[in-house]
UniProtKB/TrEMBL annotation:
CC per GO annotation: endoplasmic reticulum membrane
Compositional bias annotation for Low complexity: 535-550
Composition-biased stretches (Basic residues): 507-534
TM spans (from-to): 15-35, 77-94, 190-213
Subunit description: The ER translocon complex consists of channel-forming core components SEC61A1, SEC61B and SEC61G and different auxiliary components such as SEC62 and SEC63.
Locations listed in the record: Endoplasmic reticulum membrane
Domain J: 104-165
Classification lineage: Eukaryota, Metazoa, Chordata, Craniata, Vertebrata
Name listed for the protein in its UniProt record: Translocation protein SEC63 homolog
UniProt keyword annotations, A-Z: Chaperone, Coiled coil, Endoplasmic reticulum, Membrane, Phosphoprotein, Protein transport, Repeat, Transmembrane, Transmembrane helix, Transport
Length: 754
């Protein structure tokens, strides 16, 4: 019976199998992920963006400062050396395969299969004289020849060869260890132990320890945990955080502290240059003693950020520091948004009743500051300053024009081409063409809303305490695409052209006619008094009418222009409330009974907390699986190519409360669907909410849409519902059971008497 043998590889052939597989597992994935991109492809990509993004700072930095880095060259060298080693090992493996072929005596003797006995003997005698050891031949080869001759001439040897593949009979199964024998040689034992000890007791613990030390300092979003703690403390301390306070807290991040971040720099010249910038800015609070907000690194960061928002010229020595600071700001502001949301969730839980939640204005200021940082604009500046070749002097001409009233990007895009050229007559033709290209590249988001209750028989019926799901469908297009489609659809309609619509031999654009008719229809709608619902109308018809009204209100697109127009938006909301006063009469006592609602809603708020945390975990898992590359943001003063991302959430503008947590949408290329979930109010009635869509990069392109909820009383559960009928057959037969118990007791008494 054949046995088993384990032995090290004396020749070192099997070791090549191990090395080949090991090197291949490293080289192939490393080539896919680490091979430097072709510079020509990057130049082609930049060339395609040149007609729109040529004025952007990040675009100019890529052209003016080409990457003179030896890292790509070193990567190529190491990868090529790895492939050379892999090819060499594969060649060695292909050579060693021949040594382990099946034993064939004909091949050893150099004969064709089927040779006669005389031919075998003749060849054997010829090879024996050639390789005999007494005549200076190879002894090993002579033994192989003798073994092959015996296998072909001896009956027993031939039978063993045919049955077991070896003339000597069944052999022991050998398992080769893919390590050369010199590793276990006693002469090399000290060297091998030294290498093993150095690799597994010094290098590996140091690498793992350094990686672990760095990883525990950062959160999942690569933000220092110390920064998150600083933001949590100051956000909790300042419930209503205005823009000045927000900039101060943002600058206190540890990412800008050289003690915690090696990339942050502090120079002796900062002691001279920073005070000069402070005197030019003149609105920095230096009296409060709030470390780390008053530390030198935080003060420097705050001054550089304020100078960026004012579009001030700073010394050349500070420009690199300013660019480093600006690149960190979007991620830090997103972390601050997360901190505010977590504090709101904690404040609504039963365990943290004494915690004051941050205000809705603090959350929205973080989002506005992200837009301001990317565009390099102050809070109340016009969004038209995001365009190239538009300065403050030009802005006065555009906004104060007698004929045209331009306040937003959309107003400018929707103008007639001839009027727009007259408005920008101070620009040269080349600059004007670039401005038009930039205008057409700005995003236009079409937002559709659908409200439903999942896992319910009637998904359109919202009851008290139910889980409301708001499905938001976002379709992204450019401004040029939207208005071209509107123009083509309007021109396709067979409508007579009036003389008033012809100016200079050119008809007005179709979208202008559409806007005018829409304005007239809106005015006629405002003049009509609100219709009252008949009292005798059946309940299903009332629900249908309310749903139609809600859907019609949801489809109205409202664009947030500037912060100065928020008051007018609130006024329009009050007008809508006056029009829907009859429909809101059932919920008019919502404010008076708010305290009682809070008492009854403790359990629902705890569920709300768990719901929002689970939603955030799912959202992060979803975003990790999708690419965050969407569309490049047009920014004149941001030093890095920024991707276009959005926030979407639901809030109550009247009470200034957050209804659903903000969803950070980082994958909107063409179309995306977002589900916003929140528990329905604890009291039936009509509720007015607002769905917000805010950009993290553009100013003046935010959108808001009204969301009307009609909450009904929950249906009572019927007593004799078959689902809850838990009666067991035989329970009604109470007499039989009592008789059984009595007989059982009598038997026990008889046993005791016995």
């Amino acid at each position: 019976m054949a046995g088993q043998q384990f032995q090290y590889d004396d020749s070192g052939n099997t070791f090549f199998y191990f090395l080949t597989s090991f090197v291949g597992l490293i080289v192939i994935p490393a080539t896919y992920y680490l091979w430097p991109q072709d510079k020509n492809s990057e130049q082609i990509r930049l060339k395609n963006k040149r007609h729109v993004y040529r004025s952007c700072q990040w675009f100019q930095l890529k052209l003016v400062k080409p990457q003179r880095n030896v890292v790509p060259t070193l990567k190529k060298i190491f990868l090529l050396l790895g492939w050379a080693l892999f090819i060499f090992l594969a060649y060695k493996v292909s050579k060693t395969d021949r040594e382990y072929q099946e034993y064939n005596p004909y091949e050893v003797l150099g004969l064709d299969p089927g040779a006669t006995v005389s031919e075998i003997r003749k060849q054997y005698h010829h090879l024996s004289r050639k390789f005999h050891p007494d005549k200076g031949g190879d002894e090993v080869m002579f033994m192989r020849i003798a073994k092959a001759y015996a296998a072909l001439t001896d009956d027993e040897s031939r039978k063993n060869w045919e049955e077991h593949g070896n003339p000597d009979g069944p052999q022991a199964t050998t398992f080769g260890i893919a390590l050369p024998a010199w590793i276990v040689d006693q002469k090399n034992s000290m060297l091998v132990l030294l290498v093993y000890g150095l690799a597994f007791m010094v290098i590996l613990p140091v690498v793992v320890g350094s990686w672990w030390y760095k990883s525990i300092r950062y959160s999942g979003d690569q933000i220092l945990i110390r920064t998150t703690q600083i933001y949590t403390y100051f956000v909790y301390k300042t419930r209503n955080m205005d823009m000045k306070r927000l900039i101060m807290v943002l600058a206190g991040a540890s990412e800008f502290d050289p003690q915690y971040n090696k990339d942050a720099t502090s120079r002796p010249a900062d002691n001279i240059l920073i005070p000069q910038l402070i005197r030019e800015i003149g609105s920095i609070n230096l009296k409060k003693n709030e470390p780390p907000l008053t530390c030198p690194y935080s003060l420097k960061t705050r001054v550089l950020l304020l100078a960026h928002l004012s579009r001030m010229q700073i010394p050349e020595t500070l420009k690199d520091d300013q660019q480093f600071m600006l690149k960190k700001c979007p991620a830090l502001l997103q972390e601050m948004v997360n901190v505010i949301c977590q504090l709101i969730i904690m404040a609504r839980s039963r365990e943290e009743r004494e915690l004051r939640p941050p205000s809705l204005s603090s959350l929205e200021n973080c989002m506005k500051l992200s837009q301001m940082t990317v565009q390099g604009l102050q809070q109340f500046k016009s969004p038209l300053l995001q365009l190239p070749f538009i300065e403050e002097d030009h802005l006065r001409r555009v906004s104060n024009h007698k004929k045209f009233k331009i306040k937003s990007i959309r107003d400018l895009v929707s103008m007639k081409e001839s009027d727009r050229r007259i408005l920008f007559n101070f620009l040269e033709d080349s600059n004007y063409e670039e401005l038009l290209a930039v205008l057409g590249s700005f995003p236009h988001i079409n937002m559709e809303i659908k409200t439903q209750v999942l896992d319910d028989e009637d998904s359109n019926n919202i009851t008290v305490g139910s889980l409301v799901t708001v499905l938001v469908v976002l379709k992204r297009q450019t401004m040029a695409e939207v208005f071209e489609k509107e123009q083509s659809t309007c021109s396709a309609e067979d409508q007579p052209v009036d003389e008033n619509q012809v100016e200079g031999g050119k008809t007005k654009k179709g979208w202008q006619q559409k806007n005018k008719t829409a304005k007239k229809s809106s005015k006629s709608k405002k003049k009509k008094p609100p219709k009252k619902k008949p009292a005798a109308q059946p309940l299903p018809q009332q629900k249908q009418i309310k749903q139609k009204q809600a859907n019609g209100a949801v489809l109205n697109d409202v664009t947030v222009k500037d912060d100065e127009e928020e008051a007018s938006d609130k006024g329009s909301d009050s007008e809508d409330e006056d029009q829907n006063r009859d429909s809101q009469s059932e919920g008019s006592d919502k404010d008076s009974d708010r305290e009682t609602d809070e008492k009854h809603g403790k359990d629902d708020e705890a569920e709300w907390q768990e719901l929002q945390q689970s939603i955030q975990r799912k959202d992060r898992a979803l975003l990790e699986t999708k690419s965050k590359i969407t569309h490049s943001v047009y920014s004149l003063y941001f030093p890095e190519e920024k991707q276009e991302w959005w926030w979407i959430y639901i809030a109550d503008r009247k009470d200034q409360t957050l209804i659903s947590m903000p969803y950070h949408l980082c994958t909107l290329k063409d179309q995306e669907e977002v589900e916003l979930k929140f528990p329905a109010p604890n009291k039936p009635g009509n509720y007015q909410y607002t769905v917000f869509l805010r950009s993290d990069s553009y100013m003046g392109l935010d959108q808001i849409k009204p969301l009307k909820l009609e909450v009904h009383e929950a249906k009572p559960i019927p007593e004799n519902h078959p689902q809850w009928d838990t009666t067991i057959e035989g329970d009604d037969d109470q007499g039989d059971s009592d008789g059984f118990e009595e007989s059982y007791d009598e038997e026990d008494d008889d046993d005791e008497d016995d």
